[in-house]
Design brief:
The chain is built from 10 helices and 11 strands. By secondary structure, the chain is α/β, with parallel strands linked by helices.
Length: 287
């Protein structure tokens, strides 16, 4: 005969099971029923995500998400699954995932524990470091050389937080200028209104390459002031969908197909770093 305490415990377990069950497969169920997977991207984050001349999303992270769309279609046995792209901004990307306006966010989002309170993340897709873009004539080589100077950075990003922490740790007094896009920062740098633009090293290189202008001459710091672990943002609390996404990424890493994706978008910058190569290798999980 069950005691009242046992009945209460069983009831609580049942309630927890009922409460969690709908969330476990909700994204896959929605995709299956609607026949569409919705992917978000940020324009202006080349070579990871940007819109080409036709307005179509392109880039390293975008290609990973296209592979995920194909993989999810195969797992759901829906070969005619459609893909819908939604253009996001750095400011609204997290809310777009939280509100389930997109199923996956495909850009340059750094995986942090703070963000994981709001959204979930895939396996790590790239490793980068934060740096500062300067004019070639600048005498700055390290962040310590920016005392009394102005640095533009997109507000609310992990780069802004890391920059402030690095300046404080190095006892460097510099003025932080908030911007909304990297393009805005580049314009301020060209006009001499700031002395540097802080962002992830690879996206700064992409910024200069895609906005080349006669007479331009830029350089980066000799050292990074943070490490950025990129991952794809996913709806929080949906383990089945996270597994479906990670199955695709793990296969790309395990088979070495990721190197072809890397070479297509990042090859001109050189081979993957030893740390990134190790990241691919470690995450090549077996089925």
């Amino acid at each position: 005969m069950m005691t009242p305490r046992t009945v209460v415990l069983i009831s609580l377990v049942s309630l927890c099971t009922l409460a969690s069950a709908p969330g476990q497969a909700q994204t896959l169920d929605k995709i299956r029923k609607q026949g569409v997977i919705t992917l978000g991207y940020i324009d202006g984050a080349a070579p990871f995500s940007y819109a080409d001349a036709n307005g179509d999303p392109q880039g390293y992270s975008v290609e990973l998400c296209r592979s995920i769309a194909e993989g999810v279609a195969a797992q759901l046995e829906r070969p005619q699954l459609k893909t819908r792209w939604v253009k996001l901004s750095i400011q609204n990307r997290i809310d777009a995932v939280r509100r389930k306006q997109v199923d996956v966010e495909c850009s340059t989002t750094t995986w942090t524990l703070g963000r994981q309170r709001l959204v979930d993340f895939s396996l790590v897709t790239f490793l980068d470091g934060a740096s500062v873009l300067m004019k070639m004539a600048s005498d700055a080589r390290r962040l310590a050389d920016f005392g009394g100077k102005r640095i533009a950075v997109i507000g609310g990003t992990t780069t802004e937080t890391a920059l402030r922490q690095a300046l404080t740790k190095g006892l460097v007094v510099a003025e932080i200028v908030g911007i909304k896009t990297r393009d805005e920062g580049l314009q301020l740098l060209r006009q001499g209104k700031v002395d540097g633009v802080a962002s992830d090293r690879t996206t700064l290189i992409g910024l200069v390459v895609n906005n080349a202008s006669g007479g331009d001459g830029f350089k980066l710091l000799e050292e990074d002031f943070s490490i950025e672990q990129y991952a794809l943002m996913l709806p929080r609390g949906d383990a089945d969908f996270r597994l479906a996404v990670n199955r695709v990424l793990a296969r790309l890493y395990r088979t070495g197909e990721i190197r072809r994706v890397y070479d297509r978008w990042l090859g001109p910058l050189g081979a993957p770093s030893p740390l990134l190569s190790a990241t691919y290798f470690i995450q090549g999980l077996a089925e």
